[in-house]
Amino acid sequence: MENKYQKVKDGLKEDIISGKYQVDEKLPTESELMKQYAVSRYTVRRAVGDLESDHFIYRIQGGGMFVQDWHKDWSTPTDTKLIGVITTHIADYIFPNIISGIDQVLSKAGYSILISNTHNTHDKERKSLINMLDSKVAGLIIEPTQSALPNPNEDLYQEIKDDELPTLFINAHYPRLDFPYVDTDDLGAEQRMMQYLFDLGHRSILGIFQVDDIQGVYRMNGFVRAYQEHPEYSYLSNIIMYQSKESADKIYERINGYLQQSEAPTAIVCYNDQLAIRVIDYLKSKGIRVPEDISVTGFDNYQLGEYFTPSLTTMNHEKERMGADAAKAIIKLLNREAVENVTYQPDIVKRHSAIELKNQ
Questions:
Q1: How far is C-alpha 115 from the geometric centre of its chain's CA atoms?
Q2: Phi, psi of 181 (to 5 degrees)
Q3: 182, 168 in Cβ contact below 8 A?
Q4: Which end of the chain has fewer CB atoms at under 10 Å, N or C?
Q5: Do 251 and 216 share a structural domain?
Q6: In which band, very low, low, confident or very high, does the pLDDT at 78 lie, cut at 50, 70 and 90?
Q7: How many CA atoms are closer than 13 Å to the CA of 236, on its beta-carbon side?
Q8: Alpha carbon distances (Å) from 22 to 11, 56, 229
Q9: Which InterPro entries match (predicted)?
Q10: Are residue 51 and residue 9 in the same domain, yes or no?
């Protein structure tokens, strides 16, 4: 079935070749083409952009679109081979490693990358998607934004799907969109981390999870699943849920409330290593020793966690490998080859922030 973008492109091209529009004749406006073909502005722009690259159309700033002398030999093909990469962040935490993995594979294959970040907000995700479409990228590698919440940008994703633009998700995927993905078994990994703490003798454990990202929801579910398998002490479980824009001070206040309870937690599992490092700093400021008084674990194997004091017990994240696998998959999609989803099974990285509970 012909997609919308191809329908617009082929329709305009046929009108030009058939002589409906003569060389240097003005073409309908974007708005008129949107009505004519019942498509979005982004579909029209992509179709017109391709025809412009193929020398069927030229533009005059402020004057509109016109028919190019398509009979002329314009044979200097320029394939930018540009891949758009959209992540929630770029320069911090695990993202430089992921992007590096993407770039290493794509650059060897002759592709360049155009990077954008959303700061985990849907408004910026929308702007990033529009900029990528306007830049006529050949494919997209995207980390979903606030993936556990309803997405107001589904119209753009549907447009991408209708246009058959090769697209792949990393770290997570939107449940309502069936693009291929490379992610991590967050639920199973957190469940294994909990079992490790149980084996160390911990029973009263506090879990802190960011729940506007689907990774956080799955990790929280792993926490709950682990306690479900040990109903004899599941009553000792406690959970703090927060969203990405919530202040750290509010989280610390809630942690402090649990520390005052008679069955105070002997261990805290955190959504990720960034949070775990902040929690350890907060506990130290309260005169609480880690791990002697409270064990703390993270998730993602952030490089700084290895050198922090105490070094951080965490779950591994296949950062560079994820980037490389995503890049290999997008190349397959560009070549119209089948791509299977990839889900990593991370290992526990045992360090010094979690120890066996004494006197149990």
A1: 12
A2: -150, 160
A3: yes
A4: N
A5: yes
A6: very low
A7: 18
A8: 15, 11, 74
A9: AraR_ligand_bind_dom, LacI/GalR-like_sensor, Peripla_BP_I, Tscrpt_reg_HTH_GntR, WH-like_DNA-bd_sf, WH_DNA-bd_sf
A10: yes
pLDDT band at 146 (very low <50, low <70, confident <90, very high): very high
Residue 314 C-alpha from the chain's centroid: 21
Strands 82-87 and 139-142: parallel
User: What integer pLDDT is reported at residue 79 of this predicted model?
Assistant: 57
DSSP 313: B
Give yes or no: residues 264 and 283 share one domain. Answer: yes
Q: How many CA atoms lie within 13 A of 202 on its CB side?
A: 31
Claim to verify: residue 225 and residue 308 sit in the same structural domain? yes
pLDDT at position 4 is 86
Query: Is 338:332 a contact under the CB 8 Å cutoff?
Result: yes
Instruction: Give ∠ CA 148-154-155 in degrees, rounded to 5.
Output: 170
Does 283 lie in the same domain as 237?
A: yes
* Model confidence pLDDT, tens digit, residues 245-263: 999 999 999 999 999 998 9
180 and 93 within one domain = yes
Residue 203 lies in a domain: yes
Q: Does residue 313 share a domain with residue 190?
A: yes
The domain that holds 41 is classified in CATH as 1.10.10.10
Give the tokens for residue 205.
């454990």
For 350, residues 6+ apart whose C-beta sits below 8 A from its C-beta are 196, 313
Cα separation of 122 and 246, whole Å? Answer: 16
Q: Give dist(CA 263, CA 237) in Å, integer.
A: 10
- Answer yes or no: do 174 and 191 share one domain: no
Which helix H or strand E contains 34, and what residues bound it?
helix 30-37
pLDDT reported for residue 359: 66
Domain extent, residue 200, equals 186-317
pTM: 0.82
